Amino acid sequence: MALERAKERAFVACPFNLLKERFMGRLLSEGINPEVGLNGSIMADYRLHDFYSAAERLKGAGRRCSIHAPFIDIFPGAFDPVIRQVCASRIKDAIDLAVLFGAEHVVIHTGFEPTMFGEVRDQWLVNFLSSLRLILAHAEASGVRIMLENVFEKDTSIHERIFSEIGSDTLGFCLDIGHVMAFSDTPLEHWLEAVGTRIGHLHLHDNRGGADEHLAIGEGDGAFELLFSWLHERDMHPVITIEAHDEAKVIPSLSALEQLLSRYPV
Fold it and tell me: Cα dist. 174→24, 37, 106, 183 in Å?
């Protein structure tokens, strides 16, 4: 099956270290657009010229990219103001790299973990919104949109509160369907009803509901037909990223996406 439409429509998640050290040539030859991941120590391990050279290779080959900001130890809602400042600064650095790569979107996490912040959620939200406003000011000045992803949130209430407080078009929602399945107590239908109109980005990967397995589309129980039909009915055209973590699952995911797009152009 030809995959040109899926390859043109979607990004494929790839950490920067793997992009630079292993997969750049293959991505370029396959015509795949990467979502460049900056998680962990990547932004400390590499220098500006490393990012610049990679960005130039992608641009020279006519490839597009999106950027995923670091998240593993990033807590924009932290209670210590020094920690909040460092976390917001790191996300601003990711926005600057998005400008370098010519990426229009930077995906970020809230950093909310129910076991850590559940009992102090209201103050966490105040802290997070303070950080987010600083991040959005930098993003707006840079011409970059921020896409706020769902991860460990059990329901839609946190995202609803954030979007009700922040009306800026610079902020959109990155719906991660795999995280809804693995971590949320709220079904996909309610996520779509509650915050679906803010969707600007999709992270697509599959699982069986018990863990964040990052399988190929169709290998688990993901309601991809429901999602794509919902978007199609509303004439919505979000950015799409394939997040299958196993290299061997990328092409099957693109093939499954090609079939979805043939039935539900979005």
Answer: 25, 15, 10, 15
Distance between CA atoms of residues 183 and 209, nearest Å: 8
C-alpha closest to that of 228 among 187, 195, 199: 199
Region 4-176+184-204: CATH code: 3.20.20.150
How many CB atoms sit inside 10 A of residue 121's CB? 16
Domain ranges for the chain: 4-176+184-204
Average confidence (pLDDT) over 12-31: 97
Compute the distance between CA of residue 165 and CA of residue 11 in angstroms, rounded to an integer.
30
Token pair for residue 135? 């991040």
Neighbours of 261 (CB within 10 A): 17
Chain segment 59-100, per-residue pLDDT in tens? 999 999 999 999 999 999 999 999 999 999 999 999 999 999
Predicted local distance difference test score (pLDDT) of residue 117: 97
- Residue 32 DSSP class: P
Q: Cβ(51)–Cβ(97) under 8 Å? A: yes
Is the pLDDT at 15 greater than 90? The verdict is yes
Q: What is the pLDDT of residues 208-226, one digit of tens each?
A: 998 999 999 999 999 999 9
**Residue corresponding to tokens 């896409």:** 147
Global pTM value: 0.97
Residue linked to tokens 């979107």:
105
Q: Cβ atoms within 10 A of the Cβ of 111, count?
A: 22
Q: State the sign of the Cα–Cα–Cα–Cα dihedral 133, 42, 63, 148.
A: negative
244 membership: H or E segment, kind and range: none
